[in-house]
Amino acid sequence: MRIAIYAPLNPPDSPTPSGDRLIGRMLMRALEMAGHEVTLASRFRSFDLAGDTLRQGRIAAIGARLAKRLLRRHEANPPDLWLTYHLYQKAPDHLGPLVTREFDIPFVVVEASVTPGAEGGAWASGHMDVLHALARADLVVGINPRDRAGVLPHLTSGAHYRETPVFIDGSAYRAAAAEHDAHRRALLAATKSSPDSLLLLAVGMMRSKDKLDSYRLLADALKRVDSSDWHLAIAGDGAMIGEAQVAFAPLQDRVTFLGRVPYERLPALYAGADLLVWPAIKEALGMCFLEAQAAGTPVIGANREGVAGLIRDGETGLLPAYGHAAAFARAIDTLLGDRGRLQSMRIAAARNAAGNHDLTTAGPRFAALVASAARRTR
């Protein structure tokens, strides 16, 4: 089957690392492994962060022209199915609904969000575009349980909503986990830590708003930690690095900024750490939690939908109260004070990632869902 895929927020071949880019790539890989011919339909980004209605109108007009161009380009040989990944009001799909209607092909949406009360807000037009796309969809695949309630009322008769776990290619992480001791020694050296120190790790781009808020809450939590034998390594860079450094300044002797770490070096970094710590402020999922677990590293995240679906509380990590620095600090203290529990969590984390969130296990289930949409008629 020939499948056209489109991601209005961030194309899978974007040069900028992000969890969104990673998920898009994994979806393509899973479909290709199932024998489908997958092509990127467009790199057009419909994203508007500022809530600028005039800009949204210009984006919609460009999208309409691009959709007509796609129709002309593929008129003689249209795709068998169209898949749109990550649909929400700030990044609506101006291509898929028109192309699927004109070619009369199945329309699959993966990860759609409907924001309550958005009808009269700054992204009202994007909100209506999302509802229009959902009304066209034959199948919506949810990867975050919190999206279900908002999406279901807007599906038409005959359309289906199915959920699947998010997944990654864990092969490089499993290989790194097998060399845990060597990677740990390397991280100890990079942070100039004593061999007895427990190595904490945070991985995230240093952008404004949510990412910076996560760094600030992490710094606040670490100031409250009672345990003394720890060192934090931070992998990430961006425009807000100065603000992040200010947040951690009181802990400067116990924090090492590693800068931007190339993607191919991340498995070794995760495997060398004893614990991943990330508050995940306003994050839908948090792919770092999966990457860390795939490398056999326990995690501390946040007790909120999406994130909680990736972490088995008390088994592969801990889920303190969302946005609560004191609770986050207590979770860190709990695990730093029990190295035996950390070791058992390493084993459980690796099993969770391999069994439930790996390209080889969850990928075929996702591909089967997409194929089922192609077999159904509207």
If you compute it from the alpha carbons, what radius of gyration comes out, rounded to the nearest whole angstrom?
22 Å
Q: H/E order of the elements?
A: EHEHEHEHEHEHHEHEHEHEHEEHHH
Q: Give the averaged pLDDT, no decimals.
A: 94
Separate helix tally: 14
- CA-based shape: globular
What would you call the structural class?
Answer: alpha/beta
Q: How many individual β-strands?
A: 12
Residues in helix, %: 40-55%
Cα distance, first to last residue? 18 Å
What ranges have pLDDT less than 50 throughout 5 or more consecutive residues? Answer: none
Give the strand order of the largest sheet, numbering strands 1, 2, ... along the chain. Answer: 2-1-3-4-5-6
Mind summarizing the main beta sheet?
6 strands, parallel
How much of the sequence is in beta strands? Answer: 5-15%
